[in-house]
Design brief:
Layout: E1 12-17, H1 22-29, E2 34-39, H2 44-50, E3 56-59, H3 66-69, E4 77-80, H4 90-95, E5 99-101, H5 108-123, H6 126-134, E6 154-158, H7 162-173, E7 177-181, H8 187-192, E8 196-198, H9 201-207, E9 210-213, H10 227-230, E10 238-241, H11 250-258, E11 264-267, E12 287-289, H12 298-316
Parallel strand pairs: 1-2, 1-3, 3-4, 4-5, 6-7, 6-9, 7-8, 9-10, 10-11, 11-12
Amino acid sequence: MPLGATKGDCMYKIAVIEEVHEDGIKLLENNPNFEYKLITDPSEKNLIKELPNFDGCTLRVSNLGEPILKHCKRLKVISRHGVGIDNVDLKYIKNNNITLLITATANAVAVSEHVMTMLLTLSKEVKIYDKEVRVGNFKENAKKIKTIELLNKEILIAGFGRIGQNLIKKCLAFDMKVSVYDPYVKKETIENLGGKKVDIFGDAISKADYLSIHMPLTEETKNLINYSNLKKMKKNAIIINTARGGIINEDDLNRALNEKIIFGAALDVFQKEPIEKNNPLLKNERVILSPHSATFTDECTSRMGMQTTQNIIDFFEKKIENKMVVKL
């Protein structure tokens, strides 16, 4: 129920940091053991003021670092609206016994569909064809526009969690060949789903027609896609990133596109969000962009909202599933 409601005595106070889908809010409203407050201002100053009053919180894209968390002595759990964990101070929450939860099963379908949409849009040059028709060049330039079939093309899926495992089914349906780079996933798991495990990333990208990134942003993966690795790729290669922006060095990507080292790129995430107005990728016609919106389907936002708040409820009711808990 909303904070300040008078119906009974609530056990747990939950801060909803930034809006979640109304279906998720209803779960809190309908549970007499919880009361919540929506915090629409996620600035550090406001969170230092507000968050110490709560037992748990949800979290979307704002940051929870030690300057905020050190004031939150009551806080027992953070429930991420998504699966990325780079906006939480992991060292601090581990040392202070704060549990981090993720929506582990909510977004795989929406993100993998977004990948295929971007992949097909670039491969079939949908934007260019559309523009040609609108300006009256119905077929004048059509045969000059290079497009690509997916049949027998090799896609490298980098990171093979739930999104990668959902994506592989769609790629196989298009008769693509699938390689997977993920040091933490067994060969048997990948092969059982129709893929081929590769162990050396640099070798794998040199053979790939498509690269779809599904890794977390860590010190190991930061700037993994740099000019050196881009030069190893095929000239017809296309990169899709729906994971985290810092995995790709954007200056190097822009250079590689301009030098026609690769064919194209599709980005849903960026090094700085919102993307800066002077970012050269905004003017590069060989890249298509979306605003970190791969999960923004009606169905997925409902699932994510519900799973975010249900995770909080399950945590305090001691029913939380292990797959929702980030192991630190």
